[in-house]
Specification:
single chain; 585 residues; mainly alpha; 6 strands; binds protoporphyrin IX containing FE; binds copper (II) ion
Amino acid sequence: MAGEARATTNRGASVTELHAAHGSSASSIVTEKPAGFLRRYLFSCDHKTIGLQYFFLALAAALVGIFLSLLMRIHIVWPTATIFGIGKITPESYLGLMTMHGTFMVFFVLTLAPQNAFGNYFLPLQIGAKRMAFPWLNMAAFWLALVSFLIMLAAFFVQGGAPISGWTHYAPLSAIASAGPGQGSGLDLWLVSIAVFCVASGIAAVNFIVTTIKLRAPGMTWMRLPLPCWAWFVTAFLILSAFSVLLAAAVMLFMDRHYGTSFFEPSGLMIAGQMIQHQGGSPLLWQHLFWFFGHPEVYIAILPGMGVTSHLLSTFARKPVFGYRAMVYATIAIGVLGFGIWGHHMFTSGMNPHAAFAFSNLTLAIGVPSAVKMFNWLGTLWGGRLRFTTPMLFSIGFVSLFITGGLTGPILAQPVLDSYLHDTYFVVAHFHLIMGMAAVFAIFAATYFWFPRIFNRMMSEKLGRTHFWLSFFGAYATFVPMHLLGMAGHPRRYSQLTEVNYVYKLAPLQMFISIAAFVTMSAQVLFLVNLFWSIFRGKASTQNPWEATTLEWEPLQEGNPVQHGAYEFGGDYNGKDFQPQSGLL
Ligand code: HEM
Ligand SMILES: [Cu+2]
């Protein structure tokens, strides 16, 4: 069989240097053939190696993040416990754990894994390019991200420990080193790390944009692009715009802390018994700058997941994506509207009610393209011949979590309701379901799906399914009860639960949540075992084990342009139910 014969050849080998035909200046940079071990696995310019490097960096960050949340959940239910090797958790070290947990998860997991890890590996393969437009910059961006990660880790070990002002670091306290333990060198390192991260992300984003525009294979028109590629492309614009603003904000805060500027500091503030020297600045300016980045950031985390989910639902329902064009336009609309709604994080900041009204309505407006996506995912599943593989289960899990987490969005978007719910566990529940869990499910879906393309082996379906069901029920059991805590007025970012009477009454619910969280975390061990075991021992995979259509499975051959759209499933194509984009069956 031709398929089997091809399976034995080196997969990338038959791809033509198609981009050379485009005559772009980018394609004149030739990637050197990696020589020794160092060039090959460490300082490689190959987009696949770099994609994997990002994947393992994100995995390391996730393990750190999970460990920190484990400590938090232990402290919440056993506040006086002494933890082996760590000691007692004080209120301020709890805040440090919380700040660093949020930081690792948002920046190093949710920004790096969906976009830079899978995007680097599969964007060129899916568009029929041999490499990214700027291979050397691609490598530089990864190494900067790694440096940023190490600087962030170092914040635990300096005097005063990790910063305690939450991943949002609101001024004026964040500008004052004496405001609390961790607000000295710990916060300085946080700011330096994030500044480096912003530069790295910007470089990576430019690479994604140029690659998509310039290096698509002949015949790969915009409306034939696989949906993950559309998502990576739009997300790259979001990264470029949002992280530039965060970079500026971080530099300004650093200057307020060390060089006597007063961007964010008003006059007449007494902190720790001392009058501060600043005057004339605005603490609200920090909130505006931070959330101008922060809101698009949640879309940076979720858009690639949406793209992957759309792709997988179609592949495993054996049906074309329902409303492909609508999906593309919805992706763009979400990207654009995402920049107009940051004020919904600031309803309680004393903003003009007219501004609150505008932000509220714009926030509701973004529900429309999100609903289009929901509708189209369900439309794709409807009447399909569903194959419940592990990646499919995680994609369906994504849709489920996205709906559940999404439902509380319009509630929080009402300024009146948000005045009560702001800074309670209701918000923690909302963002963990929609941004945390949904995005993580998409990362799992992508890992199980593309694993055979990366390692030429299959992951265990049995372990994968067990991992799915435990994570699925675990995520709901952990985060749904947090809505109840929030409605009862339980504040977030609060460590001494035992000391306030009405909060203490909620202790049994907190216990339930902690147990659910421990079970969910344990389930991730199954994933790790499956991942590492399968890399070395997994069943050998065929070339196109999921019978997918896109070019990473069935590369183009010399002189043969892309022939088809990305989702031609369900017809009769030479006795098969799918038509590869390359036209080769
Ligand atoms: C097993 C999974 C997880 C558990 C048990 C967990 C637990 C927690 C806890 C207890 C807090 C502190 C809440 C507070 O006092 O305000 C928190 C905050 C946070 N978590 Fe998670 N988390 C998990 C996964 C994630 C993931 C995947 C993300 C990625 C988005 C994430 C992002 C955040 C953020 C951004 C904060 C806010 C930090 C801050 O307020 O500065 N978490 N989490
Ligand atoms: Cu937002």
